[in-house]
């Protein structure tokens, strides 16, 4: 079985010999086996144990077991304590999600610290230029103990929640410094390995609670599938492997069709929905946090009213006149106003969207720049009556997102320039103008 894991690492993870491996050690059967296997394979192993303080004395028991296991095997151990329930309450997430976020945030923190130590050592030994690291697979990594049964559960979980092809690939063997060396093994093989070594482990009592959806799949769904077909886990994992290997070809087809239909990162033409291109829309939205109901509504958005908007935590999609417009929500980022250059000139020279000319003697107050506001109006150059800025921007076919990011130059309460579009007729240069002020951005 050790050789089986080694072959899987060489084929799927490409981990270099003697790499530093930070093993996520809960003390359960899977992580205990992972720790021993990675050590037996000759990697520089360090263990990371999380105490979430969710199960009273049982949490302390797990920590004590991890400490003793590492002591017996000469493995360095780092322990982090978390106030998981407080975190879940503060961030409005489930206990399960809170534990996951806390766990992986710490893993990545430890990973970066170890990688930085490795880089410093490379520099100290003068190897940084002679033997450069080609990818982060050549650096330290965090190993987690997911196996094939977990993979099958993940595929079913993703299907239940709703997924595209990526969700049918399951958990990757390697991604962003997180590796899963035991995805080539099933639960029975892991237990047999521990039994052969006479190695004990702890059992998390919460694994038998049906509070969490994954537990219900493990306790109720998987036994039924095995009853229907003893090879159910193997077949589910094989399907995931096939989809994973097919994904690059699928992606090439998506990219080619998107180019053909004029789909860009920020714009999805409504005409592309006419052929019910659900896969194209799904790929356009993937990773942006939209749920299945929102995606289904967008698929039918050609019948929606202009201006309808869908939002996730990170992105917004607007149903514009002839397309869906996508933008990233940047709650903490304030759009920087453009810097305006003022110059007195003798005549009107070069023109363009970012240049405007005014009668300097009419501008007696400081010129300021701000974002457009609801209710703003001005007298567009060449016109006599006032017009709402929002109506003007609609006429020039700006989307709601683009309108919100439009700046105006003001003189007191008056808008003198809708920057990038039109100056105000009241401050125009006329035959009686003696001094001309040129504004540019």
Largest sheet: 6 strands, mixed
Unreliable spans = 129-134
Helix content: 40-55%
Strand proportion, as a percent range, falls in 15-25%
Give the overall pLDDT as a whole number: 90
Number of beta-strand segments: 19
* Major β-sheet strand ordering: 3-2-1-4-6-5
Gross geometry: elongated
Structural class: alpha+beta
- Count of alpha/pi helices: 13
* Terminal residue distance: 67 Å
Question: If you compute it from the alpha carbons, what radius of gyration comes out, rounded to the nearest whole angstrom?
Answer: 30 Å
Textual characterization of the structure:
The chain is 40% helix and 18% strand. It is of the alpha+beta class. A hairpin with a 3-residue loop joins β9 (315-319) and β10. The longest helix has 30 residues, at 95-124. The protein is elongated and about 100 Å long.
How would you describe this structure in keywords?
441 residues, alpha+beta, 4-stranded antiparallel β-sheet, 13 helices, 19 strands, 18% strand
Short structural summary:
40% of the residues lie in helices and 18% in strands. With 441 residues, the protein is an alpha+beta fold.
Would you spell out the secondary-structure blueprint of this structure?
Layout: H1 2-13, E1 20-24, H2 29-40, E2 44-51, H3 57-73, E3 77-81, H4 84-91, H5 95-124, E4 141-143, H6 148-161, E5 174-175, E6 178-179, H7 187-197, H8 213-228, H9 232-261, E7 267-269, H10 278-285, H11 292-299, E8 309-311, E9 315-319, E10 323-328, E11 341-345, E12 355-359, E13 367-371, E14 377-378, E15 387-388, H12 389-395, H13 400-404, E16 407-411, E17 414-418, E18 422-423, E19 436-440
Parallel strand pairs: 1-2, 1-4, 2-3, 4-6
Antiparallel strand pairs: 5-6, 7-10, 8-9, 9-10, 11-19, 12-19, 13-16, 14-15, 16-17, 17-18
């Amino acid at each position: 079985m050790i050789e089986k894991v080694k072959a899987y690492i060489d084929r799927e993870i490409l981990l270099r010999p003697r790499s530093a491996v930070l093993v996520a050690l809960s003390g359960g059967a899977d992580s205990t086996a992972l720790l021993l296997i990675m050590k037996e394979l000759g990697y520089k192993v360090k263990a990371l144990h999380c105490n979430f303080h969710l199960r009273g004395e049982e949490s302390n028991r797990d920590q004590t077991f991890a400490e003793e296991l590492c002591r017996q095997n000469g493995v360095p151990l780092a322990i982090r304590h978390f106030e998981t329930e407080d975190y879940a309450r503060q961030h409005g997430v489930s206990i399960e999600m809170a534990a996951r976020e806390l766990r992986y945030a710490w893993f990545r923190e430890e990973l970066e610290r170890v990688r930085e130590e490795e880089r410093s050592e490379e520099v100290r030994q003068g190897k940084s230029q002679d033997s450069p690291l080609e990818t982060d697979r050549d650096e330290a990594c965090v190993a987690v103990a997911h196996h094939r049964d977990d993979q099958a559960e993940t595929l079913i979980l993703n299907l239940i929640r709703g997924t595209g092809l990526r969700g049918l690939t399951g958990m990757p063997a390697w991604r962003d410094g997180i590796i899963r060396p035991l995805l080539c093994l099933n639960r029975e093989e892991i237990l047999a390995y521990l039994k052969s070594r006479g190695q004990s482990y702890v059992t998390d009592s919460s694994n038998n609670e049906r509070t969490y959806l994954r537990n219900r799949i493990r306790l109720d769904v998987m036994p039924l599938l095995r009853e229907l077909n003893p090879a159910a886990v193997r077949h589910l994992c094989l399907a995931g492997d096939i989809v994973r290997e097919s994904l690059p070809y699928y992606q090439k087809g998506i990219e080619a069709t998107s180019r053909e239909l004029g789909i860009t990162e920020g714009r999805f033409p409504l005409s592309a929905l006419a052929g019910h291109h659900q896969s194209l829309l799904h790929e356009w939205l993937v990773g942006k946090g939209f749920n299945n109901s929102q995606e289904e509504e967008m698929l039918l958005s050609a019948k929606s009213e202009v201006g309808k908007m869908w939002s996730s935590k990170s992105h917004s999609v607007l149903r514009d006149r002839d397309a869906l417009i996508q933008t990233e929500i940047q709650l903490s980022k304030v759009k920087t106003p453009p810097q305006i250059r003022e110059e007195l000139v003798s005549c009107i020279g070069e023109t363009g969207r970012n240049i405007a000319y005014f009668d300097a003697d009419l501008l007696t107050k400081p010129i300021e720049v701000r974002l457009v506001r609801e209710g703003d109006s001005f007298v567009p150059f060449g016109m006599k009556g006032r017009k709402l800025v929002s109506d003007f921007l609609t006429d020039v076919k700006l989307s709601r997102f683009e309108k919100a990011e439009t700046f105006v130059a003001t003189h007191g309460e008056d808008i003198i320039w809708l920057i990038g579009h039109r100056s105000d007729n009241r401050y125009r240069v006329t035959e009686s103008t003696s001094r001309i002020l040129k504004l540019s951005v």
